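Q: Second attempt. The first request was missing the SMILES, so the protein and NAP are both included now.
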Amino acid sequence: MRVGFLGLGRMGTPVVRNLVAAGFTVTVWNRTRAKADELAAEIPLTVADDPAGLAAAVDVVMTMVADDAAVEAVYLGPEGIAAGIARGAVAMDLSTVAPATSRRVAAALRERGADFVDSPVSGSTKTAEARELLLMVGGDDATVARVRPVLDAIGAAAHHLGPVGTGATMKLALNSIVFGLNAALSEALVLAERAGIDRLAAYEIFASSAIACPVVHYRRAAFERPGEGPVSFRLALGVKDLGLIAELADRVSAPMPQAETNLREHAAAAADGFADWDLAGLAEWLRRRAAAPPDRACRVGGEVAAEREAAVEREAAAPPDATTQWEAAAEREAAAERETAGQREAAARPEIAE
Ligand SMILES: NC(=O)c1ccc[n+]([C@@H]2O[C@H](COP(=O)([O-])OP(=O)(O)OC[C@H]3O[C@@H](n4cnc5c(N)ncnc54)[C@H](OP(=O)(O)O)[C@@H]3O)[C@@H](O)[C@H]2O)c1
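A: Got both inputs this time. The predicted holo structure:
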């Protein structure tokens, strides 16, 4: 089987190595060509000039790129996969994107007589290297059966969940837990340190305790030695995922107060210069915030606490047919803003009268 692979990032590169090791004839394309040429100098594969040319020459096209915009570009852009894919070929996207993006790409390929499956993955760079990825697959039965040999070559298990878009949906549900865990680990580590426990001793307890799932182990070095060593998952991609989770929650009216907080916190860390750090950079961001001058730290903490209390009260008073939680959150923020402005105005009035 001839396989094409687009996207030689942190995850795509080890996946390609496993495809070659499994005996597939592999052609690759990457936006930054130098990465493809470097890999081709190391293992037997061909480098294509553009996505359309690659798609025309293979039986299965695989993509693993950063985000929805990148997926749209490689499939639907000029010289994209849709422009070249052969009738009867299959494309498979491993990126974490919105289910609607997967469905849009599937529809465009269907017009060309080609099929599509979304197959995002759970795991990290080390999991990908070890061929231990968990794949969540969306597509029709016959198409998924055709790509089984490829799925088996890159992961430990592939679960077929339903039609196109269900893999992407399940990945977002799963990742909402990953980011909750990242925030909880970050906060707990900084809490222990601030209270006088050595960082490595605290992490040893996490890694030996009831909460020691694989994430706690494979992110250990990044938590213990912040800013050193290789990045396995960029914090910016986490913010992207949390945005997709928020959109999905909004669309299906699922209450996700934790994910809402996690989006706000991870986005603030990214905006403060941690976007290209590993996801564990959230702990370092909290550590630096904790070390900021006490008046600033207290002010931030006080505002957050007051906002939370007010939100709980407003939620309890909200009419049952209130708009979605995300719209409600925006309304809450606007109301809090109006309240603060009103208080400021009231405080200023006596002075003006005098
Ligand atoms: N890292 C993880 O632990 C992990 C785990 C599970 C799922 N994922 C998901 O897997 C996907 C890839 O993650 P990664 O960590 O490998 O990311 P990465 O290291 O940042 O690599 C991103 C890849 O996307 C390409 N790309 C970005 N924008 C593009 C565009 N507009 N057009 C074409 N190509 C573009 C990049 O090309 P250049 O080389 O030219 O920049 C690169 O090949 C993401 O959706 C991520 O959420 C990651």
